[in-house]
Structure formats: C-alpha cells, structure tokens
Write a structure and sequence with these properties.
Layout lengths: L11 H19 L14 H13 L19 H13 L8 H14 L2 H12 L5 E4 L15 E5 L2 E8 L10 E7 L10 E7 L6 E6 L8 E12 L3 E2 L5 H10 L4 H24 L5 H23 L9 H24 L20 H9 L9 H12 L8
Parallel strand pairs: 1-4
Antiparallel strand pairs: 2-3, 3-7, 4-5, 5-8, 6-7
Length: 397
C-alpha cells in the first residue's frame, strides 16, 4: 500500500500541474506510445537498468514514501495515482525495480533501523539496486507459514540453507529479502525472521529459471547453500519475521493495482476490436461477455480507489486479488474465443528455431491460467477474508 500523504484539502490545480509534468517527462523520454528504445523488452537487461536509473534521476522512484531525502520526490496519494495512470498510458517499460520500491522500501520505512534505511532506500530510489522476494517454497506456497528454509546465527552473520520457488526477477536482482526459520524446532509462524541477503554469492546462491508453458521463464527456483546474511540486515527482532512479512504482504497491492487495471483496459479494448473484425461481436453471448468484463473492470477500479488508504483493512488485498485474478483469466478465454480457430495456430512464418512461438494474445492466455494461483491462491484469499474479516472459525490444519 502506498504511504503518501492523503491531504484533507484537495488541490486540483496542483494535481493538474503534476499530471502535466509527469506526462511531459515521460513523453520527452519515450515519445508517444509505440516501439521506442526504452519500451518493453524483457530480454534487454541493459536497457531496463538504464530506464530505472533514468526514473531515479527524475525523482520518480519512491514518490509514495512518506518523506524525501533519498533522491525521490514526495507526492500525495492522488498524485501517486496520477503518476501510475500516466506511466501506464505512456506504455512505459515493465519495472525492474518495483519489488524494491513497492515492497521492500515500505517495509523498511515501517520496521527498519535508521542504518538499514540509509543503506538500502537510496540505491532503490536511484534505480541502482534491484530486489527479489524469497517467500514461497516447495510445500509452502500459499501456506507460507509452513516454510522450512533455515538460518543459523554465526557470530555477526546468518548462514541460510534451503530453497525458494516462484521467485520473480531472481536472475536480475542484486538483493533478496527472505523469510526464514531461525528457531530450530519451531512451527508455523513462530520462530521466523526477515533477512536481507546479497544474491551475488557464487556457490552459495544458485538461481534456476522455471520454463513455463508460455515458453518463457518469468519465475525461478533459488537454492541457498550456506548463503550469508549480515545480522545487521535482519529487519525486526529475531523470531518476529511473521509480523514483518504480514506488513509487507499488506502493501503488495494498492496504487500498483490501478496501473494493472489500465493495462487490463487496453487488453479489453483489443478484444473488442478483434471481436468486431472477426464478426464475433454479432453473437449476443459474446457481446454479453464483453459487457460483463467492462462492468467488472469498472467495479475493480472503484474498489481499488476506495481501499487505497485502507492500511488497517486485512481483507482489502485479498478482495482485490480475488477480483482481478478471476477477471483476467476470463478475459484470456474471451480473447481466444473471439479469434476463432486462428487462435489455435502459431504465428507465421513457422520457424524450426522457435517451433513454440506464440503471439502476444496466446501468451497472455496461457499465462493468465496461473492468475488465480500465484500471489496467493483464490482458496487462501477466501480463507483470509473468512477468518480475519468475517471472524469465521479457522479451517482445521
């Protein structure tokens, strides 16, 4: 969740100036939406790093933090939404530093020591250091409290052994924040600690990409074999990692949800254009599905705006996840349906070098099958709402 000021006095003139400045800055560096050098190219790590540093020089990283001083500008909550809207409308690159900016930094601001803030916030705000999240494990995905990766105190360091999985940006990251078990014999949420560790530890940290049915590898396995974390880089007290981790998960949605929805709107518009071009829009069932997708997207936006300042609402992130995950999955199905039989064939010309080539719609459809699983499955989101919001009895473990 964003941490910016929610000024009681509205400032429409200031917001208009902010929007004009953001739009002008993005246009000057990206041009109008289209295939410009900094635009989405997940394979060009050099370009992605250069873009993050450009954002940092402009002060556009960390505008949701409650204070400046790290090279970032501050902004009201309204202005954070404006920046997110303009960034998405400009079709700016997918962020390489979003985990550090939107997850790690707010956690340090809430729970970190002055030395930790001084060490890590500046490089994030300047677009110089990138982070990944070491939470899920085999057998401990949505049920995070079942994790087994262990860390043993060794003087002024911890030595970490275990495995994490589904780790986005692990190959690109300089640092990882990991939830690990520091109390031998402890179970569930007790005995966990929140550690920050460098990824560049040959022989101690190994990253293996996971090839998905899309043919791409957005996720990774990470193996720790005696990986070292400085004890001074433990966030919160030893054994208090669960509380820190829950605070981080509460910030995992927020303004970024609105950015996501702008992308969803563009995808829906593409579906409508395709339905018209193929004649599928003449089918009343297809038209009904399109209208439902449109109406549900508007509802998601209103819900996201309503809950932006709901830092104390334990159900808000889960409701948001349930809404968008199912919606996007259904959109993927609709996108394929309106194309007809063509949706089942690969792009021409066929290439022996890349026999599994997919076009963007096919790739989005396949990836969307995982939307209701990653980031906390629908089942777990419903459990959170039932137990923490509605006060229903806990399910037997």
């Amino acid at each position: 969740m964003a941490n910016g000021s929610t000024d009681a006095a509205l400032d429409p003139d200031g917001d208009r100036r902010f929007r004009a400045e953001a739009r002008q800055w993005l246009r000057a560096r990206l041009g109008p939406p289209g295939p410009y050098p900094y635009h989405r190219d997940d394979g060009d790590l050099t370009a992605r790093r250069a873009w993050e540093r450009e954002l940092g020089r402009g002060g556009w990283i960390g505008i949701g933090w409650p204070e400046a001083g790290h090279g970032n500008r501050t902004a009201t909550l309204t202005q954070q939404v404006i920046w997110a809207e303009e960034y998405a409308a400009a079709e700016a690159p997918a962020r390489l530093g979003h985990i550090g900016e939107n997850l790690l930094a707010p956690t340090l601001i809430a729970h970190g020591t002055p030395d930790q803030k001084k060490r890590f916030l500046g490089p994030v705000a300047r677009g110089e250091e990138y982070w990944c999240q070491g939470y899920s494990e085999p057998g401990a995905g949505s049920d995070l409290a079942a994790l087994r990766t262990a860390a043993v105190r060794d003087g002024d360091h911890y030595r970490i052994t275990g495995q994490k999985i589904w780790t986005s940006l692990a190959r690109e990251a300089d640092w990882c924040f990991a939830l690990v078990r520091t109390e031998p014999g402890s179970t569930r949420h007790r005995g966990l600690s929140f550690l920050l560790l460098p990824m560049d530890q040959p022989g101690r940290v190994t990253v293996r990409p996971i090839r998905q049915m899309t043919g791409t590898s957005e996720f990774n396995e990470v193996f720790f074999d005696g990986a070292v974390a400085d004890a001074a880089h433990r966030v919160g007290a030893e054994g208090d990692g669960w509380r820190v981790a829950l605070g981080l998960l509460a910030r995992e949605r927020g303004v970024s949800t609105l950015v996501q929805q702008i992308g969803f709107a563009a995808e829906l518009a593409d579906v409508v254009r395709t339905a018209v071009a193929t004649g599928a829009a003449t089918d009343p069932v297809v038209r009904d599905r399109i209208v439902r997708q449109w109406a549900e997207l508007r509802t998601m936006r209103w819900n996201a705006l309503r809950t932006l300042g709901a830092d104390g609402d334990p159900g808000a992130p889960s409701v948001a996840k349930l809404l968008w995950a199912g919606w996007h999955r259904r959109l993927g199905e609709l996108a394929m349906a309106v194309r007809g039989a063509e949706a089942t064939t690969g792009p021409a010309p066929w290439s022996a070098a890349d026999p599994y080539a997919l076009d963007p719609v096919q790739r989005a459809f396949l990836f969307s099958r995982a939307d209701t699983i990653y980031g906390g499955s629908d089942e777990i989101q419903r459990e959170i709402i039932a137990e923490r919001v509605l006060g229903l009895p806990r399910e037997p473990r």
